[in-house]
Fold this sequence. Notes:
The chain has six helices and no strands. By secondary structure, it is mainly α. The radius of gyration is 15 Å and the shape is globular.
Amino acid sequence: MNLISRKPVAMAEAKILAGNLEERKTLNEYFKAFSKAPAKEAKKLSEEISALNNLKIKEEDIVKITDFMPKTSEEVNKVFNGVSLSEEEINSIINIVKKY
């Protein structure tokens, strides 16, 4: 097997990529416990955050936001490692997440 590309994916997308989960009980339980948004909503959420065109927000951060669905500024700050967001930037993310 050769690695063709490397791209972070949200839990909802990983669940789809995993295929038939009936045979993989542990994996299925993991996705049920930690996946907070259905795939379609996760994709829309990711697109809206990407549309902010903020250079501080990387693809990995968008995936984390989609997976964790932060509701407070403290939760948003936990997603970002080594990056300081302004209150306005944090509120933009929270307002987008609230829609989902």
